[in-house]
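Exercise 3.2. Students should predict the tertiary structure of the chain below and write it as structure tokens, then compare their answer with the key that follows.

Predict this chain's 3D structure.
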Amino acid sequence: MDQYLMTHDILINDFDFDVFISGHTGILATKDHIKQNKEFTLDVMNNVKDAIEMAGPDKAVEKCVEITTSQWIGRLNNLDEFMTEHCQAMKDYVMAQ
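Answer key:
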């Protein structure tokens, strides 16, 4: 996860481009999209940590989905399609640390 987050900074700071084609989505991303993705990832990480403390490991994914969705509704599309998977993956990462 540290390398994934660091990649965002490298793309933003070390490369001169107008659009970025990641192959992960159907959009032509700008540096603002990359910044937003990093912010989202950090929010999911912080939210899953908070959710583990608030609700315990067994309910952390559900709580993370609830918190993150409320923060990002209207900022990212289709949250309901991927939030559970993002929170589960982040919970697995955080719990392994």
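Discussion points: Residues 36 and 75 are 9 Å apart (CA to CA). The mean pLDDT is 93.
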